[in-house]
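Async update (no meeting this week)

Hi team, since we skipped the sync, here's where things stand on the single-chain job. The sequence we agreed to prioritize is pasted below, unchanged from the tracker. I ran it this morning and attached the output directly underneath so nobody has to dig for it. Comments welcome in thread, and please keep replies under the output.
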Amino acid sequence: MIRVREITVVRADPRLDVQQVQQTLLPLFGRHPLFVSRIEVLSLLKESIPSITSLELEKVYPAELRVTPHLEPLAMRVTIIGPDAQQEEQPSDPENWSSFITEGGWYVQTATPQKAGHLPHMQLVDWGARPNPGSNLFSSDFLQRMRTVEQALATQFGQETISRAVYLRSQEFHLTVVTSGEDSKNLTLWLDTRGTVEEQLQRYRTFLKGIGLGEVTQYIDLRLKDRVVYK
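Output:
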């Protein structure tokens, strides 16, 4: 009599695919609820939905499990740029859906949340094969590195980041900033993941002291160890 015969999924996030969750948890049917643990359920779900971070498990004896999964929060809005670097690739989903990157670097398409306007925006270029929803595009360390650079540019140099472009295959990112002062201008800084953040920021400090921004019209490349290239 005391066996799992029903699994109810509580949808705490509109991104959650309830049918996928139920399908994944099919092996739990017929089990004694007492021996079904939250850790086991979470492990099962993360195999098919890796962006799940935690869940709540309620056992309603004699036969029901109630599962409330929680997904990684959205970190950025994303626009995928086509191979010609001009034509934006539009998602095939309804018009009110948008593309996002989660905190863990997962690419998702979902109905646009009300708070989406407050999320920073990135352009994804140089991606080789077009990413599919559910793909892990890069690590959380990559996003954190980009945030660290943006914060340093704002606090140490007084430069606000106004746009971001991520080059997936080469694992680099280009940040367009607005410089401060009377001769304010927009310029793009090129950074990557091969060197440390501090190394690349130190090259920028050295460049500003030695050359300055007067001759820069487009970009400053901070990726190279032995030189700084600019245009």
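Quick observations from my side:
The chain has three domains: 6-71, 74-125, 140-230.
Residues 6-71 form a domain with the Ubiquitin-like (UB roll) fold (CATH 3.10.20.310).
Reply here if anything looks off.
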